[in-house]
Write a structure and sequence with these properties.
alpha/beta
Length: 137
């Protein structure tokens, strides 16, 4: 076995066989020599310079409040159930759709909030959030 027995002594050779490493490096060098000209093969074109800024359109926010007596207020204006459904239908058709923030009184029946959420879902509104007060320790 080449590389394990040195001369006439039974000592182990501690040299690394460099031939496989050199072969690998030569193959890599040839690959790079072939691929670099192919990567550079392009037509030089002077491109025009222009700056454009994306217009950020903030959707409006509808604030729906449900008072303790179950009455609906949309953006600080009282509404009946039919008026609420009509306003939410109109908002569902807008582009971009407005966000709906629901503020329910802590003493209101859950049924009234659920009815408002169902009306918003039927109107096609996708973004519905609930507004709460943070707890102060």
């Amino acid at each position: 076995m080449a590389g394990f027995i040195a001369d006439e002594h039974d000592d182990v050779m501690s040299e690394i066989n460099m031939v496989p490493f050199i072969d690998v490096m030569l193959v890599l060098l040839i690959i790079f020599i072939i691929t670099v000209p192919v990567m550079k093969h392009a037509v030089n074109v002077e491109l025009p310079r222009a700056s454009n800024e994306k217009e950020v359109v903030q959707p409006q926010t509808l604030r729906l409040s449900v008072k303790a007596d179950g009455s609906y207020w949309l953006d600080d204006k009282p509404l009946s159930d039919e008026q609420l459904a009509a306003r939410l239908q109109a908002a569902g058709q807008e582009s971009p759709q407005p966000d709906l923030h629901i503020r329910g009184d802590r003493d209101v029946r859950y049924e009234r909030v659920a009815q408002a959420m169902a009306a918003a879902q039927q109107a096609g509104l996708k973004k519905i959030g609930f507004i709460t007060e943070p707890v102060h320790p």
